[in-house]
Structures are given as structure tokens and as C-alpha cells.
Amino acid sequence: MLPFSTSPIPHRVPLNHKKAGSGPKVAPKKGTKTLIIGKKKFVAENRARRPAPGERKALRKRIVLSNVNALEVPGMQDIDEENMFDGRLEGHVLGFSGQLVDQLRAVEAFKSAQGWGLFRRPGTLMRRETLDLGKIIAEMSSGDGPRKTIRRVLVGERGSGKSMMLLQAMTMAMLKGWTVINLPE
Predict the structure, then answer these.
(1) How far is CA 125 from CA 150, 161, 168, in A?
(2) Helices then strands (H, E): number in the chain?
(3) Which of 9, 118, 156, 185 could tie 160 with a disulfide, CB 3.0–4.6 Å?
(4) More confident residue, 13 or 173
(5) Are strands 93-95 and 123-125 parallel, antiparallel or unpaired?
(6) Residue 124 bridge partners (DSSP)
(7) Which is nearest to 63 in space by CA: 8, 11, 118?
(8) Could you give the C-alpha distances from 68 to 116, 117, 120, 136, in angstroms and in order?
(9) Tell me, what's the pLDDT at 146?
(10) Beta bridge partners of 95
(11) How confident is the model at residue 56 (pLDDT cuts 50, 70, 90)?
């Protein structure tokens, strides 16, 4: 009599089933995979150097402020204390001096998405709003009358120039000799 089983007859275990590994070793059937112990296969090594701690972040935050392949803008003057609120310069591009670039870089004023690598050296467009800001800073530092605090909130669409306006304000404050504290992102 056969033991009770719910498996179909072709899949059930025969009564006289031998355990694997007992008996003579025979070659496997053609086309089946076998375990080969002793032979080592060539494994391609990853020869790439892993980045040092903080290197990925440094590359992500790296800002290129000049491009030696870009054309030089002839006659571009630097922004300074005298021309930062000159109304005749509305619509003109003024460059940053080397010392000013170093100071702005130290306070992390430049942003990586601003496209500084497109120009030979960093510069800024003097818009009407920029000139108004320059006049406010000049009035505050003139020393006439009591000192007052001026607060401004910059609002606008993405890419409208809020970060650039903040950069221009920091530039003007540094030109006046003020201490600038920036809290980047």
C-alpha cells in the first residue's frame, strides 16, 4: 500500500529514494550547471579611487568665477564707492575687482547656478533697483542725522534676480567698509 500524498504522482517522492551524495559519482547531464570548486574566475576589480570625505560636496559647491576662453568686454569698469549709485550707469555691466571677489567668495555670496563661468571675470548689471539700493546704502553711511535700520523683503519669481540683488547689496556694503554676515542656504 502506498502512503497518502496530495502531490500528483509524477512529483511525489518514490519510496526507495536515495539521499543526494550517496552512491557513485556520475557526470551531470549535458547542459546542466555544476558547482566547480578550485577554479577561480577572473573578477574585474574596481580600480576607481573613492572620493575623499567631503570631496563630492566640494565639487557640488565649487563655483567658477571666470572663463579665460570668454571674450573680454572692452571698457568694463569696476564697481566702486563712487559709481554704485550713479544713475547714468543704469543698464551697464560693472565688474568686480579681484579683492572684492575674494571677500564675496569668503562669505559665500556667489551661487553655483548663476552662470559665472560664461564671462571672463564676474560682473553685475546695474538695474534701476540696484541703483536705488546703492542710494539707500549711501544715505545710511553718510552719517547725516540719526542712524536708522532699513529692512527690505525681496520677492519674485524663480530666476528674477533676488540672489543677484542680495549679492549687489553685499558688494555695496563691503565697498562702504561694513561687516557683512551672510547665511547661505
Answers:
(1) 23, 10, 9
(2) 4, 2
(3) 156
(4) 173
(5) antiparallel
(6) 94
(7) 118
(8) 12, 9, 6, 35
(9) 72
(10) 78, 123
(11) confident
